[in-house]
Each structure stands twice: as C-alpha cells, then as structure tokens.
Amino acid sequence: MIIMEERFYLAAGPVTVTIARGSAEVLGYEVSQGSSFIVPVGRHVLLKVRGEAVARSSSGGLIPASRESYAEFDQVASLALEGKRVMIVGPVDAGKSTLAAWILNKALSARRDAHFLTMDVGQNEVFCPAFAALSSAAPPVIPGNQGSFPHVKPCFVGSFSPAESLAKYFSCAEKLSREVSGLLVVDTDGWVDGEGALMSKVKLAEAVRADLVIAVGLEERAKLLEEKLAAEVIAVARLARREKSKEERRVHRERLIAQKLIGAKQRLLRAEELELEGLELFRGKPLRLNNPSTVYAEMGEGGLIVVYRGERPPLGEGVKLLRESWERGLLVSVEGDGIHVGVLDKIYYEKKLLRVFTNYEGKVKHLEVGKARVDLQSLGL
User: Which domains are assigned to the chain?
Assistant: First the structure.
C-alpha cells in the first residue's frame, strides 16, 4: 500500500484545480482523483491533498498553507454540526463564508439535508448584493461558485447594509428561514461594531430561530451575544488572516451586480400597470406649482413631494424635495416569472413611466425600488 503524504494549500482564485493523483479535501469535502473544481476570482480555498493537485490559471494558483489553518476550520465546523440552525457572526473577512461552506460540506458528506441562507447583503455571492438569498447546497460548496448554490430563492432587502433597511432585513430572514426543515447555515454581514450592530445580530438570530451562533473574531463582544441570546454561543478566534480593502470590496460588489445584468436592456414600465413598492410617487394627486424649478409635484398620504431642477425651491417645511435624476442608479427588484435584478435609470413623470435596465423580458408584475445605488457607467450600462 502506498501512503501519500498530506499537503495543504490555499487555492487562490480564479483557478481551476484538478486532483491528478490520489484524493483531496476541499473545505472539508472529499473529492477523488480526476475531479476538478473552480475557485472564483477574489476567493481563497483551503485544500488538503493526498497525492497531486494541478492548478490552471492565468493569475491565481496554489499557495502552500499550514496544517493548523486547515485544522482550525475543520474543528469549528465539526462543532457546528451539533446545531440544526447555525448562524455565523463576525467582522468582515473573518472567515465566515468559508466556515459556512465548510459546515455545509461536512453535512453533505454525512448525507444530511443542508441549506444556506446568506444575509450578507453587501457581498451576496449566491444571488446579488442588496438581496438576501436561500439556497440548497451542491458539493463541494465553494464560496462565490454559483454551481455550489442551486435552487436560489432571493428576497430584496434593497440596501448594501442592514442598518439602512432593518425591517426588511429581518422580514426577509424570517420569510426565507421558514422554508427550511433540515440543517440551515446562516451567513451574515460584517456589521458588528457598536451595541446597535450586535443587537441587530440578536434580532436576526431570533428571526431565523438559530439554536447555535458561532461568533468569529468578536472576542469580548461575544459575551453580549451570550447574555442576550437563548441560543448556544461558541466564540472562536478569527479564522481568516487577510482583510480586503474597501476598494476591493466595492469592486467585488460591482462585479457581482454586473453578472446579474449581463444582456440587460432598457425597458419602459408603466407605473399604473405595476404593483409598485419602495417608491412614494404616483400614489397621490399630481399638482401644478408656480415655480420654474419644479419638474413634478404630488400630494400623497405622507404630504407634498416635489421633484426639482436647478435651485432648491423655497417651499417651507414638511415638503419632501427630490432633485431631478435622484432615481438614477437605484437597484430594483423586478418580479414577473421569478425575481430578477434591475437598475432604475429614469422616471418620466407626466407619463408615469419608469425606465429600467434589466435582462428580464417577460411581463413585470411587481417592481420594488431599493436604497442601494450603483454607477451605471461602471456597470457598462
């Protein structure tokens, strides 16, 4: 019998890895000789190789890693399997997504039914940023690899941070988590600084009915979670060492959004034919104001709304003022046959038309306007 030495690597994406000889574990999942898997751009995946692995990439590759790094994740993932609804919290780039994938892989190895819920609305790699998403899991589960997350059910939060849309954030979490009966692994965003941030995680744990919370890299702040939660809390040290810059995270987010808008075209949607959400306009009575800067005015249930150009009109208190083109670049959820991603480009007020970029070509039944904004030029639109 030939005993092959174990070697540990960090596969830096974009890279395709093939197990040329022997076998390997990819984030805790066993793969056999001849198997290949893809690590997406911007992702780093830990491997344990018993034999030989070959990397094909123009910019990524295999970097030697330590046995200890692999063992850290594996030990924590093994503990997490004791829970049925596991939520992972911690700062940005602490290893939360990698740990979530590891837990899913170990569950799938044990032939357990497993689902993944990402509440990281700033960097949602399962569907699109500004959305929460529930998915089944296909091994080996690799963060950012679309093939790892089939049968996706998205829910539009509308912002890149839960702090801007907390009610919708918790509503999506509760709605999606109720669709799962087996193991559920919940990944979260990195908003953990301050009592308000940690309390949002407490409410999120309640919304998804977590029975186990893994606090990664929170140190003393993990004690607050223990005091506030009925769920068991396991505190572990930071699992990942490299933290992305704000610019790297912004570029990655734009890349994820651009992928959902491939082939997008302008569509004109009539407001009166839609179930319109997140837009205060077109709900009341249009008004004509004797002011040259006024583009559109409407008296609704919440008071007077005025869209203006040029100088800010002197209309007093209690009036909501929107500068012309305020809508450009807002992300929208386009619902018809399923939920799709769109970007609001322009509103034609007199005709009550909305111009939206989307690759969905069917009949739009519901349009929800979010708070998150993107640069259309940077997306090539």
Answer: 6-65 (no CATH), 68-259 (3.40.50.300), 263-373 (2.40.30)
